[in-house]
Design brief:
Keywords: ATP-binding, Ligase, Nucleotide-binding, Pantothenate biosynthesis. Helices cover 34% and strands 18% of the residues. By secondary structure, it is α/β, with parallel strands linked by helices.
């Protein structure tokens, strides 16, 4: 879906001042006032709204969340906003894929599919695509750990794993989600299990700030070879894409140790994942620089499903979350004409996870 990575944003059809996505009845709302004006009557007539927050560059994972939202809500709002506050200063805010035209076409297509399927309560009513000036009225949000400003922090869960490597990430996510929830006032919000720690942070946010919102988590949509779909996969290029399944393969091996092998101990469960990583590293390094792929493991984790704190033993009545992050390093010796990926193929951080269901 996110095959094009330009920042093109061709004008959507606009009749009587109302902007719509081409070939659809989906409104494009760009200001908080416009969103609120649209929302108000639905609050009064008690029509439910499901919000699917995204950063655009839509793929089948996003579309699956929208389908789930349309099943259960009268209206679906999809937000498309690349939130600067969740990018660290050295991260990829400037090159993050922006594919507005392809996203608009995918949403229009999906909306027609939803209309034809009688089982849905609603369809895609609006895309909310605000500017940063609208979302951060006090000015561009600080991206440093010690930046000052109006932030929502969810700790300790936001400090571990992804939060350790990306120390401003969950502060940025919680802050922008609080804003989106306040603006849209959805009955339900939809998040993907691919970003499992994000789902735990959002559940904490909703519970601790008493927001009258149901958090729905949709399962991870994967490519045929198992790689979790992700907007950032476009950075990989062909060579690294072929090896990018290493993380999922490692997590599957750990899952098998738990499910098939009856392992409960951290070392036994994660050891199975580490073996897959080590074998893959050995295979790749034997290939030589013109063929090989280099990657570094940031973490492999076995954590508590509610707090994301590391477990030394799995309580089979509760299960756990296996997760990991790997950094795919830039291709070492690019070959003539080789597809290196979006933006010249920078280092790409991939994350994935598997939920270990209770075994008793
Ligand atoms: N493969 C997937 N399956 C299910 N949900 C997904 C998948 N990928 C992303 N999502 C969910 O879509 C929502 C929006 O995510 P986002 O726009 O950041 O896409 P992304 O593919 O996760 O991008 P990135 O590569 O930047 O992490 C999040 O709730 C995210 O968890
Ligand atoms: C939830 C989110 C849209 C907030 O910017 C983002 O973190 C994402 O796309 O997962
Ligand atoms: N899907 C999470 C968004 C991010 O990594 O910035």
């Amino acid at each position: 879906m996110a095959s094009r990575c330009s920042s093109s944003s061709s004008p959507s059809s606009s009749r009587g001042g109302l902007e719509k996505l081409p070939s659809s009845s989906i409104r494009v709302l760009r200001t908080i006032e416009a969103l609120r004006r649209w929302r108000r009557p639905h609050l009064l007539d008690q029509r439910s709204v499901g919000l699917v927050p995204t950063m655009g560059a839509l793929h089948e994972g996003h579309l699956a969340l929208i389908r789930a939202a349309a099943r259960a809500n009268h209206h679906v709002v999809v937000s498309v906003y690349v939130n600067p506050a969740q990018f660290g200063v050295r991260e990829d805010l400037a090159s993050y894929p922006v594919t507005w035209d392809a996203d608009a076409a995918a949403l229009a297509r999906l909306d027609r599919e939803l209309a034809d399927d009688g089982l849905n309560l609603g369809r895609i009513s609006a895309v909310f695509a605000p500017t940063t000036a609208a979302m951060y009225p006090a000015g561009f949000p600080g991206q440093e750990v010690d930046s000052r400003g109006s932030f929502v922090t969810i700790t300790p869960v936001g400090e571990v794993l992804e939060g350790k490597t990306r120390p401003t990430f969950f502060r940025g996510v919680a802050t922008v989600c609080m804003k989106l929830f306040n603006i849209v006032q959805p009955e339900r919000v939809y998040f993907g299990q691919k970003d499992v720690q994000q789902t735990v942070v959002i559940k904490r946010l909703v519970e601790d700030f008493m927001l009258p919102i149901e958090v729905v988590v949709g399962s991870t949509t994967r490519a045929e070879d198992g790689l979790a779909l992700s907007s950032r996969n476009v950075y990989l290029g062909e060579r690294r894409r072929a090896a990018a399944t290493v993380l999922y393969s490692a997590l599957r091996a750990a899952e098998e140790a738990y499910k098939g092998g009856g392992a409960r101990d951290r070392a036994a469960v994660l050891g199975a994942a580490e073996r897959v990583v080590d074998e893959t590293l050995a295979e790749q390094s034997a290939l030589g620089p013109e063929k090989r792929v280099r990657f570094e493991v940031d973490y492999l984790s076995l954590a508590d499903p509610d707090t994301m704190e590391e477990l030394s033993v799995i309580d089979p009545a509760r299960g756990g979350i296996l997760s990991g992050a790997v950094k795919m390093l830039p291709v070492e010796a690019p070959q003539e004409g080789e597809d290196l990926g979006h933006s010249g193929g920078p280092a790409v951080r991939l994350i994935d996870n598997i939920i270990l269901q209770p075994a008793e």
